[in-house]
Amino acid sequence: MNMDYKTKKTGLVLEGGAMRGLFTAGILDVLMENNITFDGVIGVSAGAAFGVNFVSQQPGRPIRYNKRFARDWRYCSLRSWLTTGDLFGAQFAYHEVPERLDPFDDEAFENNPTKFHLVCTDAETGKAVYKHLTKGGSLAYDWVRASASMPMVSRPVALEGKLLLDGGVADSIPLEYFERTGYLRNVVILTQPQGYVKTHNKLMPLFRLFLRKYPQMIHGLDVRHEMYNQQLAYVARREQEGTALVIRPKTALHIGHISHDPEEMQAIYDIGRSTGLERLNDIKEFISRTE
């Protein structure tokens, strides 16, 4: 890693966090409005669902459709889970919305030189599955859905012979993977504040019940807190070395994994925007380094 800065590809690493991802969306909109680009983006779960709009260059889209459909049962609801098997409706949220109701710009996504990657977890092996999306359209939306499919409240998504669920189970903050792929100078957007430590998931008894067909997925969930905290330590080392710039909220974001409150969503998004504006010069300086 002693290459000149000017030869290093720049990356944008987006962790998940369900509706905390609206914090990330606010930052991404500030970046788009200021014409800041990267060689590659990698997103996990909500980081993938919202981050893909950075590559299609559609500022405002995630907060817009989340607020618009906040109380629509077809988008996210217990009724959707009980009737379809997915808390976030697979057909409505990942097809009707991007294809018709709030169209995703497939052409802009495909023409953007910024490469987009996402992370899923193979439910049968518990291992991370990394996907480089080059085309928009229905299949791409299913890959995004797979990355964001929370265990227990989502059906595994069948793609390329695998059954896929939330990428955050296997690789929550894929900085190390992106470095191995050649992105050696990365902006990392986290959705938890400095000092956050993940603890063992209290829902493990339910996960063991609902995911009993997938013992490796259960194991991944059981040790996820250990993996996540190790990744936080890795990010901190890279931050100290100067190869990563980390952006995080100053305090905990007060929003649940799901929300039906447009005002609550807007508040989290606005925190992201203000954070993006505060760190804008830091980001510009970091990605423009030549030595």
3D architecture notes:
By secondary structure, this protein is α/β, with parallel strands linked by helices. The chain is 45% helix and 15% strand. The chain is built from 13 helices and 8 strands. It has helices at residues 21-33, 46-55, 61-68, 78-84, 90-101, 106-111, 138-147, 175-180, 204-210, 215-222, 224-241, 262-278, 280-287; strands spanning 9-14, 40-44, 115-122, 128-133, 157-159, 162-166, 183-189, 244-247. Strands 1, 2, 3, 4, 5, 6, 7 and 8 form an 8-stranded mixed beta sheet that branches. A hairpin with a 2-residue loop joins β5 (157-159) and β6. α1 packs across α12 (262-278). The longest helix is centred in the C-terminal third of the chain and has 18 residues, at 224-241. The radius of gyration is 18 Å and the shape is globular. The two termini are 13 Å apart.
Q: Determine the mean pLDDT.
A: 96
The helicity comes to 40-55%
How large is the radius of gyration? 18 Å
Gap from first CA to last CA? 13 Å
Largest sheet: 8 strands, mixed
Q: Which outline best applies?
A: globular
Number of strands: 8
Fraction in beta strands: 15-25%
In N-to-C order, the SSE pattern is EHEHHHHHEEHEEHEHHHEHH
**Model regions low in confidence, pLDDT < 50 over at least 5 residues:** 1-6
Helix- and strand-based class?
alpha/beta
Helical segment tally?
13
Feature tags:
291 residues, 8-stranded mixed beta sheet, 13 helices, 45% helix
Short description:
This protein is of the alpha/beta class and about 290 residues long.
Topology:
Elements: E1 9-14, H1 21-33, E2 40-44, H2 46-55, H3 61-68, H4 78-84, H5 90-101, H6 106-111, E3 115-122, E4 128-133, H7 138-147, E5 157-159, E6 162-166, H8 175-180, E7 183-189, H9 204-210, H10 215-222, H11 224-241, E8 244-247, H12 262-278, H13 280-287
Parallel strand pairs: 1-2, 1-7, 2-3, 7-8
Antiparallel strand pairs: 3-4, 3-6, 5-6
Helix pairs in contact: 1-2, 1-12, 3-12, 5-7
